[in-house]
Write a structure and sequence with these properties.
single chain; alpha+beta; Phosphorylase Kinase, domain 1; Aminoglycoside 3'-phosphotransferase, Chain: A, domain 2; 2 domains; 5-stranded antiparallel β-sheet; 13 helices; binds 2-acetamido-2-deoxy-1-O-phosphono-alpha-D-glucopyranose; binds magnesium ion
Length: about 375
Amino acid sequence: MTEKDFKMTRKLAEIGRQFQIKGDIYAFSVIKRGNINATFKVTFKDEEGSIESYIFQRINSFVFKSPVEIMENIELVTSFIEKKSLNKPSLRFRHTKEGRNYCYDDESSFWRVMNYIDSVTFDICDDPYIIASTGEAFGEFMMLLSDLDGSKLHETIKDFHNTGKRLDTLYHHEALAPDEILYECRHELRYIHEVGHKARKLSDKFLAGQFPVRVTHNDTKCNNVLFDKDTKRPLVVIDLDTVMPGMAMYDFGDAVRFIANTCHEDEPDVRKVFFDTAKFKAFCKGYLGQAKNFLTKEEIDNLVLATFSITIELAARFLDDYILGDVYFKIDYPGHNLVRTRCQLALAKDIMKKYDMLNDIIQETIR
Ligand code: GN1
Ligand code: MG
């Protein structure tokens, strides 16, 4: 065992004790998913030899300034869902002796622990059945929460999907950036300025009270749905850190931004990046099957604009982080955030090209 692994085992064991988990650590591995938190699968063996696995997560306190509020939101949402969705596994968080669903380690890092659900996830997905099931899972998630009073939830990251504010932040940092960075990002910045007014339209209208406030997930990537290994049916929606009051349309948009991309979110060769209409159609079938029962006509008519808008918003966030020196998103190599930006912009341009066709698919699906 390396020195690093030894230290980590000790740390995880200490967290496990705080959450009253019996036994000793038998194995652990890092789950390399997500751009923000650190996630581990940790397996314990107790005195009788029985083995149990858990998910341990260290919360990124730079991104999540009030993690206790996040855990309050999560408690509310998971218990609300658990009461309604019988026969399905649910996310259960461990509690400390004091009854808290979080703890701190000796370095003041914030930790939480939940049950491990044996399952598969998909980072990229070509199977229309899985894509439709992902849509169904997110549609159902929102339907289950449709009668939860959103005002009970904390807005854990203020202005998270306020596209106008995200763009203004980028423009502000652009004005302060050194010339070589501005030169390097000139094409990306030019395009974002060109389409910014269109991309901010929906979130401006939402802030003016013109769309319903719903309980939304706010990070609807397909790898946030766990699937049964054998039946390939969706089991449960995970990553509830950003569950907040928000726009339904953006949850849809964020999901198809990710799942209908022909490539990964950070594909360096943008010539390969397209918005796949067949994947989009499959997602719409699953999602709208659930969501057409609660979305308004105006929301449905704006789903494609929402897709474009959130893609531009994310591009602006990646670019802003690149300009600031990668302070927010975890990166695997220098320039990673610029690569992500370029990939999202290539996707946004293709969405624009296919705009009318995508709207037709939506109208056909609800008919
Ligand atoms: C971040 O860490 P992860 O993958 O759950 C980000 C999302 C972005 C996503 C892009 C709290 O999510 O908003 O869409 O990266 N989450 C936060 O991959 O900023
Ligand atoms: Mg997330």
